[in-house]
Design brief:
globular, alpha/beta, 8 helices, about 40% helix, about 180 residues, six-stranded parallel sheet, single chain
Length: about 180
Amino acid sequence: RGHAFVVGDGTGVGKGRTSMGVIMSHWHQSGSRRALIVSVGSLATDVMRDFKDTRVHRCFPGTVFIDASKQLPDRKQLAPQAVIFTTYSQILAKGYEPYVKLIRARNGRAAATLVLDEVHKGMSKATNKTYVQVEKLLEACSDSPLLCMSATFASQIDGVRMLAPRLGLVCTSTTPKIQNS
């Protein structure tokens, strides 16, 4: 339905660049100018490189990259046009609520894009505290376009189970419809 995607390409194929393309496409279509990328701390510089190399700031003047992997900036001081990077460990430490406030639709502005990079890191087990926080984030931001990325996405069955309905990997019908492509 165009609201959620999964990218399972191998390491080094370009998932980060793809994510910037998805973010810019959503911004172009919706007028929203904010995105939240959740990943692991070691990838902050890679995400910043992809942000710069894809020239997001040229396509959408005034857009900034914010590395919130160590500390979440005050929402009132946060630029309205931003790609915000944070980590699963920060969501675990701070809870999902501050991030919902950053990306929720408000004041006539569309919801921000939500990107879960290295999605298997946050969804390994349903009993895991990180899994619970990410699940709550997804529920609270159900109107945000969602992009899930991981070279090993399907290695964590609990994560696949949680994300499958949102990503359109399952249907609600009791009779599956097979379509020829």
